[in-house]
Structure formats: C-alpha cells, structure tokens
Amino acid sequence: MNPTHHPIELQGSVWMTIGGENFGGPGRVELLARIAECGSITQAAKAMKMSYKAAWDAIESMNALAGEPLVVRMTGGKGGGGTRLTPRGEQLVENFRIIEREHRQFIEHLASQAERLADDYLLLRKMGIKTSARNLLFGTIREIVRGAVNDELVLEIRSGLRIVAIIPHDSAEELGLALGSEAFALIPSASVMLATPDGATRFSARNQLRGTVTRLLLGAVNTDVTVEVAEGMSIAAVITNESSEALGLAEGRGVSAIFNASAVIIGVPG
C-alpha cells in the first residue's frame, strides 16, 4: 500500500431490534445509564445534549418494545421523587456493556487484518485479470537464480513463508522480474498433494507447506480439501476420495501441502 495513504480503520456499532423494530443502540443504553446515575430524566437528557421530549419518547418506545418497564417514576420522598431503572433496565445496561466489549474486541481483530486485506485488494485491482485457479497468493521476489533455459524464483508470501517457482528464462525477462518485485503465484489445486506427518514418505517437491485441514468437501470421486498454512492463508487441494480416506483426513488434522516448483505460475501486476 502506498505509505502516503491514510491507514484503513474499521468501525462498527451494536444495535438491538425486537420483532424487526429498532429497540436501540449505544445512545439509548447510555440514556438509561445516565438515568440510573442522575435519578432524573431531565438531568440525563441534559447530559446527553438532547431534549426532555426526545428522551421521554425514547424511554416510552423502549418500555413498549421490552414488554415491561425499564424506567419508572418515583413519587414523594426526599427531593420530591425522581426516576429510576427497574431491575430489568439495570440488567439490560449491564448486558449491553458486555456485548459492546465483545464487539469491540471483534472489530479490533478485524482491523489488525485490514491493511493486509487492503493490499491484496489493491493488487487485484491493478492486475485486472480473472482466473479460475483456486490458489492465488501474493508476495515479493526475494531470490532469483538465472539459468540458460529456466530461472528459479523465491516468492515470499509472508515472513517465514516462501514459495519456489521455476519458469522459463524468457518469461522471467518478459515479466521484468527482479529482486523486490511484487508478484503473484497461481497454483492449480489439482497439482497440490497432501501428506500427513505420521507418514515416512519423502518428497522431492520444493514446496512443502505445513498446515491444518479446515474444510473437507466430499464429491462423487474427489475430495476438495482446504489447508490453512498461515493465519488467514489457505491452500486448496483436490484429491481422490480413496486418498482422503487413506490419509484419515478430518478437520483439524495436521497435513503438508506439497507441490512442485514447476507447477507454480508466476504473474505480475499489469
């Protein structure tokens, strides 16, 4: 992402509805909390910078939708009475605070991913291509070994996660590939093999990414397997049903996604 751009920030609010009607969100719950604190609708409305009528209309609406009073008036006593929350109103405020806290943590988690997602989105826009390949990974060229016929490239997808590709030397030159270049890798799902850690078989394939099975989709002949190799990054593989059963594949099972360097197609933004 261009460093001169402002970073993406995610925002969100929690709203409640009852029977499809708007019950309220942070503003109305804050009004209830102010009433509990002040013991007065007038004082609560002033603190919220809203009119008394708007505050009372909001309270009446909440009382009606809740099916029971959340706010009640008190008469007499020291100071001539006032307003208080019912036990149900107090519970609503407390529970909404818990929901808001959980929602805020969820938004913060999404925000931590926003910049990387935005980078990928912008790269896709620059590419202006469509592809049927299931595995489309973005990264930076970190190593190039030039050859008379083929070049070997190392594409860093993420820190500590690299993919090796072998492409014709002429293609590498035509693409203008150089150290530090942005590029993307296409890996056909049919070219991805899977192996379990308990197997003793060794493979000559240069790309062996360890991960965890997150999805299995059983077909008439083949099984579509999704393997998470890093947080938010997955590799899809299509293997036979017999192979899936032989490997004992299941969600949560550790596996390695294996594919040859020659199976990787390299592209660059247009």
In a nutshell, what does this entry contain?
The chain is of the alpha+beta class. It contains six helices and 14 strands.
Description:
The chain has 270 residues and is α+β, with helices and mostly antiparallel strands. It folds into 2 domains: 16-109, Winged helix-like DNA-binding domain superfamily/Winged helix DNA-binding domain (Arc Repressor Mutant, subunit A), CATH 1.10.10; 135-267, RNA polymerase II/Efflux pump adaptor protein, barrel-sandwich hybrid domain (OB fold (Dihydrolipoamide Acetyltransferase, E2P), Beta Barrel), CATH 2.40.50.100. Helix content is 33%, strand content 33%. It has helices at 26-38, 41-47, 52-66, 87-127, 169-175, 241-247; strands at 16-18, 21-24, 71-74, 82-85, 135-145, 150-158, 161-168, 182-187, 193-195, 207-218, 222-230, 233-240, 254-259, 265-267. The strands form 4 sheets. A 5-stranded antiparallel β-sheet has the order 7-6-5-8-14. A hairpin with a 3-residue loop joins strand 10 (207-218) and strand 11. It is elongated.
Layout of helices and strands:
Layout: E1 16-18, E2 21-24, H1 26-38, H2 41-47, H3 52-66, E3 71-74, E4 82-85, H4 87-127, E5 135-145, E6 150-158, E7 161-168, H5 169-175, E8 182-187, E9 193-195, E10 207-218, E11 222-230, E12 233-240, H6 241-247, E13 254-259, E14 265-267
Antiparallel strand pairs: 1-2, 3-4, 5-6, 5-8, 6-7, 8-14, 9-13, 10-11, 10-13, 11-12
